[in-house]
Every structure is written in structure tokens, then in C-alpha cells.
Amino acid sequence: MFKRKNPLNIYSKIRIYLWPEKGLLRNFSYYWKRLIRIPDTSYSISMGFSIGFFIAFTPFFGLHFIISAIISWLLKVNIFSSIIGNFFASFISYPLMAFGMLFISNESNVEGWFNYFVYFAKNTFPVFSGILIIGLILSLICYFLINYVIEVFKKKVN
Fold it and tell me: Which of 37, 77, 97, 105 could make an SS bond with 47 (beta carbons 3.0 to 4.6 A apart)?
């Protein structure tokens, strides 16, 4: 009933996965509407969003969603909003980290485990310390902005 008339080949499926047919703006607007319609307090939603936003700026690649959900659960704030905040911040944090790693690193060949750890410490800690400062500032801005928008939306609905 819901199948396509002409099935997609593998290349079209990959392209649609990376760039949706309706565009990324539609996905962003969908998640934004889901965020402001969560039936919870504005504090809980905005704090969860800012926690997820900040965690996306940490160097724990692949664990961002899990860490933000655990921290949100421990602080008793909205877990779903932290996952949405993490989703939004990933589009900002990953290019910044890649840009910093590209321009700070200057050695191309590293041999041996000890030299690898020295290389890692010399090149990644400055990037991550700088990116965490940016993440903290942006997450504070997001907290106040999301809190204000959700309070206005809930007053308008009621």
C-alpha cells in the first residue's frame, strides 16, 4: 500500500539518507515543533536541550546521545529534549572540531604507542578545551532562548 511505484536503487537510497528529498530544513522544523510541544515544564525542556547541546561539544564521539541521556536522567530533566539538543549541536560542533584538528596538527606520521599519545595530547587537548568553552557559552545562550520561546508558546496555547 505504501510502497513506491518504482523501487529505488542503492545509490538513490544512500543519497536520500544523506540528503532527504524534502530537504534538511523540514527535518529541523519537525524536531523544533516536537521540542516546543513537549508536555513538561519549560525549565526541564530548556535544561535538557542545553545539556544535550553542551555534550555534543565533548570529544566522546559516538557516545553523545548516551551521555546526554544519562546526565539528563540524573538531573531529572527532559531526556528527549537533550537528544534533540545534541542533534542540533552536532551540526555546529563537528565542523568546528574538524577545522581545529586540521589546522592545529602539524605532524603526519606517528610511530609507536607512546608517540601516538604525545601526538594526541599535543594536538587534541587544545582543540577540545577551546571547543568546550564555545559549547558552554552556546549552551547557556540556548538555555535562555529555549526557555523564553517555550514559555511564550505555552502562554499562547493556554
Answer: 77
